C-alpha cells in the first residue's frame, strides 16, 4: 500500500532537495528517517526514489514555524548518504537553507512583508541562526533576477544569507583542537568549524597541485585512503567522535588562487570531490585563511580591511563570502549571496510501513 506526503523540490544555491513541513512527517525520528529513505532512495542509483544519485541532490529540508522569540522558522537538514541506506543530521547545509524561505512562503507558513521579506531561521542541526533576505514583490516569491552563482546555469533573484553566531556549530568551538595549526599523520592541517566542520590541508602536503579535476582526485585511491585516514583522526580531535559513518568533517585541499580569488579549493563531502564548495564549508575555509597562523598562511591572498570580500575558487568557478572582523581581527559575521528556484511540488509516495 502506498502512502503519500506533501513535498516541494527546490533548488537551493548549487544543491537541490526535497522540502517537507515537519508536521507532515512522523514525529518519531527513526520512523521519519526510514520514510525519507524510501522517498529519496536507498541504493547508489536511487532508482527507486526522487534523489539524484549524488550528495548534492540527495538532500532534505524539514521546516516548521519556530516557537523561539529570535526566529521565524526551524529548519532541520537531512543528508541522505547515497548508496548507504542511511541519513546524517550532523551538519548544516547552507545551500538547502537558501530555499527554506521560499518553501515557507509557498506553503503559507509565513506571509510576505513587502517588496523584500526578512526571515529569521533557526538551524536545528547546530543551534545557530541565519537571516534570509528574500525578494517578494507583488506578495509572492520572486525567482527571476540577475544574480548569478557558479555551479548554477543562468541567473535568478538573489537570496542574501547573513549568518549569525555560527562558530563551533557542530564541534563546540571555532577551533575545536584549540590550535590554528595541527599535524595529523604527518600532515599540517587547520581544523575549523565556522558553520561547517572542515579540515583545511595544503594540497602540496598531499602530493597534489590543488588544481586537479574532481575525476582525477577521485581516481587516486592511495590519495583518498590517506585523506580518509586523516579525516578519521581529525574527527576525534574535533570533538565529533567516530566519524566513519558521518559526512563531517569535510576535507578541503587549498592552493594559491588561479583566477583572481583569494584561495583555490578542492573539497570532499567527505569521500566524493565537490563540484563546487558548500556554503558553510566556504565560510569555514575563508575564516581559516584570515587566521595568521593557519596552514593557509602564504597560500591564500587575504584582502585588507575589517570587512573582507573573500573569493573561494572551486572546480566550477568561485564562491564569494563577506567576512566581518572585529578590532582584534576575529570573524564575527559572514554574509553571502545565493539563489533559489521552486522545481516541483505535489505528493511524494513511499511503500514502507513503520511502527
Outline the structure in words.
Helices cover 16% and strands 35% of the residues. 47% of the residues are buried. Strand 15 (317-325) and strand 16 form a beta hairpin. It is built from six helices and 16 strands. It has helices spanning 29-40, 94-97, 100-106, 214-219, 221-237, 279-289, and strands at residues 3-12, 15-21, 59-65, 73-81, 86-88, 116-123, 128-135, 158-164, 182-184, 187-193, 197-202, 250-255, 263-268, 307-314, 317-325, 331-350. The chain folds into two domains: 3-165 and 340-350, Diaminopimelate Epimerase, Chain A, domain 1 (Roll); 182-315, Roll (Diaminopimelate Epimerase, Chain A, domain 1). With 355 residues, it is an alpha+beta fold. An eight-stranded mixed beta barrel has the order 1-2-3-4-6-7-8-16.
Amino acid at each position: 500500500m502506498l502512502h503519500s506526503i506533501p513535498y516541494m523540490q527546490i533548488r537551493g544555491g548549487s544543491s537541490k532537495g526535497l522540502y517537507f513541513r515537519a508536521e507532515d512527517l512522523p514525529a518519531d525520528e527513526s520512523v521519519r528517517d526510514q520514510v525519507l529513505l524510501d522517498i529519496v532512495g536507498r541504493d547508489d542509483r536511487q532508482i527507486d526514489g526522487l534523489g539524484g544519485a549524488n550528495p548534492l541532490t540527495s538532500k532534505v529540508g524539514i521546516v516548521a514555524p519556530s516557537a523561539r522569540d529570535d526566529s521565524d522558522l526551524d529548519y532541520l537538514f537531512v543528508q541522505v548518504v547515497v548508496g548507504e541506506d542511511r541519513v546524517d543530521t550532523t551538519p548544516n547545509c547552507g545551500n538547502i537553507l537558501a530555499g527554506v524561505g521560499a518553501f515557507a512562503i509557498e506553503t503559507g507558513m509565513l506571509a510576505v512583508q513587502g517588496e523584500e521579506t526578512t526571515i529569521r531561521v533557526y538551524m536545528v542541526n547546530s543551534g545557530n541562526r541565519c537571516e534570509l533576505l528574500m525578494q517578494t514583490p507583488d506578495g509572492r516569491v520572486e525567482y527571476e533576477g540577475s544574480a548569478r552563482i557558479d555551479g548554477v546555469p543562468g541567473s535568478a533573484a538573489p537570496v542574501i544569507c547573513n549568518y549569525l553566531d555560527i562558530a563551533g556549530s557542530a564541534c563546540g568551538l571555532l577551533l575545536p583542537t584549540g590550535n590554528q595549526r595541527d599535524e595529523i599523520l604527518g600532515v599540517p592541517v587547520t581544523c575549523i568549524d565556522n558553520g561547517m566542520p572542515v579540515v583545511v590541508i595544503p594540497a602540496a602536503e598531499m602530493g597534489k597541485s590543488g588544481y586537479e579535476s574532481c575525476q582525477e582526485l577521485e581516481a587516486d585511491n592511495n590519495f583518498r585512503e590517506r585523506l580518509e585516514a586523516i579525516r578519521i583522526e581529525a574527527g576525534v580531535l574535533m570533538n565529533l567522535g567516530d566519524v566513519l559513518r558521518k559526512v563531517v568533517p569535510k576535507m578541503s585541499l587549498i592552493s594559491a588562487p588561479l583566477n583572481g580569488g583569494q584561495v583555490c579549493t578542492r573539497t570532499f563531502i567527505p569521500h566524493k570531490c565537490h563540484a563546487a564548495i558548500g556554503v558553510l564549508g566556504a565560510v569555514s575555509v575563508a575564516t581559516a585563511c584570515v587566521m595568521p597562523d593557519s596552514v593557509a598562511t602564504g597560500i591564500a591572498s587575504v584582502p585588507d580591511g575589517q570587512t573582507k570580500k573573500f573569493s573561494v575558487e572551486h572546480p566550477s568557478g568561485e564562491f564569494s563570502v563577506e567576512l566581518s572582523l572585529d578590532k582584534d581581527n576575529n570573524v564575527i559575521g559572514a554574509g553571502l549571496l545565493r539563489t533559489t528556484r521552486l522545481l516541483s511540488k505535489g505528493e511524494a509516495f513511499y511503500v514502507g510501513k513503520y511502527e
